[in-house]
User: What shape does this take?
Amino acid sequence: TPAAAPAGAEGPIVHLFQWRWESVARECEDFLGPAGYAAVQVSPPQEHVVLSGEGYPWWQDYQPVSYRLDQTRRGTAGDFADMVDRCRGAGVKVYVDAVINHMTGTGSVGSGPGSAGTEYEKYAYPDLFGDGAHGYSRQDFNVGECDRDIEDWSDPWEVRTCELVGLSDLATGDDYVRDRLADYLNSLVGMGVAGFRIDAAKHMPPEDVEAVVDRLEGTVPGWDRPPYVYQEVIADGAIGGGEYTHIGDVKEFGYQGRISELFAAGDLQAAKGLGEGLLPSEDAVSFVVNHDTQRTHPVLTHRTDRDRYDLAQAFMLAQGYGTPKVMSSYDWSGGTDEGPPSSADGTTEPADCDGGRWVCEHRALNGMPGFTGEVEGAGVTWLDDGSAAGRAALERDGSGAAAFNASAEPWTTVLSTSLPDGDYCDVASGLVEDGTCTSQTLRVSSGELTVTVPPEGAVAVHTGAVL
Ligand code: LAG
Ligand code: CA
Assistant: This one.
């Protein structure tokens, strides 16, 4: 039975991977709101394992110990609540990375206190909310049905019932587990959290994810709409993303793989077809990299080719396929497990975009998210003549125009556009602040716009940033 219609896309998302709560709050006010981001995806907020012996790897967060927010590497529950309020004040929704398929794995430590001090061992989490009322014990896991890792990835039952890299797999088919997961997510909704990335959705049957989503509160305080849900489904021959689109949106890894390859190769003409053969745009979340692919399939990342990667993210924000999600990272020259800049006890340092290991890719995209929001729903017309593989220009009918140049030479061209005559701010390299444009102003006159697109760069104008 189909669930209620999923909440529609709400504009561009930025993933501030591993940022402290107070750093996210500041960024919402200083940059994300003014740049036009609709939402920020934050790292998992629940109590997690602490792996001091392994140098506090980033993936601690994906091993929940309880659903308490009291103390994580990113701050306290108070810091978290303050972030949600301040981001909302800046017009930016907070989406939480919801780890609901599993709890901890055996790996390096099989037991211990978690980041907030809760004692646990694999298959035993006695106090999920810090009030002693609810826990998980062995019967709340699938270990009775499958007591080993997933081996046969062509068998959906196994992918959903056995253990993902040794992580204790929750019995999401049981009402007790569904109720606890909903308690956790609804406690966040009550604070104003406006959406969820469902981690490892493919590892749960769609009906289990749906049962949890059906239990969510219908309205987010301060936003007057239901929580937005998007699901991590790395589709393959055995499990398709379309099995989950009636529940919420789905991350489209087909788009991710293709845009990375095409931009790494500089084939912008082929990029015009991005989205064909994939999930319907209205069901998809599009992205160039996520925190996993940038480590495991680094085709195009901030480390392989920074300018081209920035160009790919800018193109995604203009093109109109899916709900775009921008990645913002830290550098990990110490290895793929390396956590964010931290103090000796594993507490994350405030994010600093002006130096150090925080890369802050989103800052380089300037006002492009505002373009995405302004042109939402407008058709795409390609404006270039198709003669150069590395160059492409588009119009989002009546509301925006953009040109992209994946070559070492500047590209000067005249775009014939249906945009109203006037002076526009180039939001690919700046934004409108206090009525003035922080980058170049471009004039549309008699339906013509002359642009010089920098090497490995973009130019973009839209009707929401006129002077
Ligand atoms: C995801 N999406 O579906 C996340 O995007 C991905 O980052 C998560 O894996 C995964 N699902 C589980 O939530 C990450 C790391 C893994 C790590 C896991 C749990 O990529 O490497 O596994 O989080 O922390 C680690 C060790 C494993 C070990 C396991 C259990 O790397 O060797 O078996 O912990 O102890
Ligand atoms: Ca599962």
Remarks:
- The mean pLDDT is 96.
- The first helix runs from residue 21 to 35.
